[in-house]
Amino acid sequence: MDLELAKRLSQPAATKIILIVLDGLGGLSQASTLRSELEKAQIPNLDRLAVRSEVGLTVPVGAGITPGSGPGHLALFGYDPLRFDIGRGVLEATGIDFALTATDVAARGNFCTLDGNGNISDRRAGRVATETSAKLVERLRQITIPGVEVFVEPVREHRFVLVLRGNGLGDAVTTTDPQHEGVPPLAARGADAPSTRTAEVVNEFVEKAHALLKDQEQANGLVLRGFANYPELPQFPDIWGVRAAALAVYPMYRGLAKLAGMTPIACPGGMTEQIHLIRQNWDNFDYFFVHYKKTDAAGEDGNFEQKCHALEEFDSHVPELLGLGADVLMIAGDHSTPALMAAHSWHPVPFLLHSKYCRDGNAEHFNEQECIKGSLGIFPAVDVMPLAMAHAMRFAKYGA
Amino acid sequence: MDLELAKRLSQPAATKIILIVLDGLGGLSQASTLRSELEKAQIPNLDRLAVRSEVGLTVPVGAGITPGSGPGHLALFGYDPLRFDIGRGVLEATGIDFALTATDVAARGNFCTLDGNGNISDRRAGRVATETSAKLVERLRQITIPGVEVFVEPVREHRFVLVLRGNGLGDAVTTTDPQHEGVPPLAARGADAPSTRTAEVVNEFVEKAHALLKDQEQANGLVLRGFANYPELPQFPDIWGVRAAALAVYPMYRGLAKLAGMTPIACPGGMTEQIHLIRQNWDNFDYFFVHYKKTDAAGEDGNFEQKCHALEEFDSHVPELLGLGADVLMIAGDHSTPALMAAHSWHPVPFLLHSKYCRDGNAEHFNEQECIKGSLGIFPAVDVMPLAMAHAMRFAKYGA
């Protein structure tokens, strides 16, 4: 939906919307049982809810397109993921809770090993230990470049984040990672004037960093990629006219929601705490985004049983979630992560919307097969938010 | 899908994709049996395959739009048929295996009968015999026009193809066919400078042709329509990163694929030979487009039983097709040709995609009714190629 239209139709109402994202929700059938994770898991509460809800399958980005976490969530928040793009560097910075500002360019960094000739001999520096890597990041913080603030932040193993802060820095900068070994890191190049300025800063940073890392055996070099400016997303509360809270255990999802203008609420304790915090903040917000990671983690590990367990664990919270009394409760996924594939996939994702105004009774369970029968059919994930607004009586009539 | 995005997401893989187009596949129920061609035909192999595949119905161009063969195929190749248009003249030239080049303008020609006043008395020249027509075409080949190469090619009965080759020829040229009798052929007119140049050439050609045809009783005149430049299609192998082969018995389909940049492989012998040639060329290509005409021919003839036979004949080849071991095998149609209508129609077309990563088990048979239940739903034919790419592991993840 065009966001200007969304803004025009939005109207106030004393209603509450909850969106639960079960990360990587959708799956595929096991060859041995012909059942998907959702079909095999014992999820009586979700099954019962599906019968009383509108169900369907969301297409996160488009036919055949496997989304990363960024586009998968943006779509559920109502942003066309083909139009609004969040760069890798920003996502990495967000993932470590780094507070990005409007003048930042962020990049993902990897320590690597350089041989005597300056060629890359190991693109991951032997997966250098996180503690070692953190100390090297400390060392890189000495680097200063005139006119630019430089931030280096540790992530895990060989990975770190570089943030350059300064006016007029562009992000159309080529990677310094040649993507294979036996060759030296590339020089960064900018595609326009502001990005050329960034590239110069980057090349200066790399030169100084290499001098500081010279004594290292493993991590004596680095490469940078995914340069990205702070994304100027139209703000979620302005578009939809809702006060929006984000409850995510993992920083990346909290950060994504923050980029969209939602208010992050720290909830390290998982679903029980998330539900508790929703109740506590009930009067302060109209919309609650709740992120549940365990389904995706198990899927990415290719662990079918574990994904079933994650679904069952979530299912046990459903009565409590219903007890909150939201006007609109949605159970969605940002993409499929079939355990069979041990990776994100393009397959449409089961979706459920519960409200007073549902065309329900089509599905008998909450799974891939049953959701096909639902009143929502197979539909773009970007339509989730308009649907929620309608069911929450928060959209005015279009036209006379 | 935007073709630039397709290009960006495409990645190499050692996988094979086969697309079988059963021309005019979709049908409508017979009043006497309440069964469509697919429901009545004995197609046990397709039925079994449908159970183990993702199924759905493709919308070739848009709701209510009956496609010609051009748009029907372009959509299955991933081209938005509303954006990429192949003119009638080019399609006619392609249909007779004429090797068009970038500087050509092609048009469809009809011999007609002119009365003593120069008015058209028969728009098809009494459907003049193909042999006579061919001789007249020979005669027209004498015509020369300075600065332009002129090709006249016989088709069948009153139909022929005119190709003008030369730099700066436009195709925004009005038809010379008044579409009814009792009036003289029209003069061609161009809408812009290059097309005005073409129109002048056309009018000169017609004048000289009429002089050469004066002695004829039936075919003493001609009209021209469907002027079309060589279409500049982004090339299929560049977009999707696959080496693509086209196996079609009829020249028009082979020609269409060739315009898209596929490599045509001659296969006059039909399905058995087509399968043999796929096996023979297995290592040289990643994508095989196979065209099967008999379903459409029977449909166009309004012959319900014959269309069932054509389906049954194809069905008998399915085990052998599966035996090729493609990673993605698709059975599709370019449009529906219900025997009931004896013509192309707008109805969505049964579609099946078989791979390792299928949400299967929704349909019990391969027909219009069962495909509605499938995991793909009713979807645009232009999504077929992205889906194939995904299932073939040839699409990278979108976004971080």
Strand order of the largest sheet of chain A: 9-8-10-1-11-12-2-13
The geometry of chain A reads as globular
Helix content of chain A: 25-40%
Low-confidence stretches of chain A: none
Distance between the termini of chain A: 20 Å
Radius of gyration of chain A: 23 Å
Topology:
Two copies of one chain form a homodimer.
Chain A: H1 3-9, E1 17-22, H2 37-40, H3 44-51, E2 54-59, H4 69-76, H5 88-95, E3 104-114, E4 120-122, H6 130-140, E5 149-156, E6 159-165, H7 193-213, E7 221-229, H8 236-240, E8 244-248, H9 251-259, E9 263-264, H10 271-280, E10 287-292, H11 294-300, H12 304-323, E11 328-332, E12 349-354, H13 368-372, E13 377-380, H14 384-391
Parallel strand pairs in A: 1-10, 1-11, 2-13, 8-9, 8-10
Antiparallel strand pairs in A: 2-12, 3-4, 3-6, 3-7, 5-6, 11-12
Helix pairs in contact in A: 5-9, 11-12
Q: In words, what does this structure look like?
A:
The structure is a homodimer of 400-residue chains. With 400 residues, chain A is an alpha/beta fold. Helices cover 33% and strands 20% of the residues of chain A. The first copy, chain A, has 14 helices and 13 strands. Chain A has helices at residues 3-9, 37-40, 44-51, 69-76, 88-95, 130-140, 193-213, 236-240, 251-259, 271-280, 294-300, 304-323, 368-372, 384-391; strands at residues 17-22, 54-59, 104-114, 120-122, 149-156, 159-165, 221-229, 244-248, 263-264, 287-292, 328-332, 349-354, 377-380. The first copy, chain A, has an eight-stranded mixed β-sheet with strand order 9-8-10-1-11-12-2-13, with helices on both faces. In chain A, strands 3, 4, 5, 6 and 7 form a five-stranded antiparallel β-sheet that branches. In chain A, helix 5 packs across helix 9 (251-259) and helix 11 packs antiparallel against helix 12. Chain A is globular. Chain A starts with a helix and ends in a 9-residue tail after the last helix. At the A-B interface, helix 4, helix 5 and helix 13 of A face strand 13 and helix 15 of B.
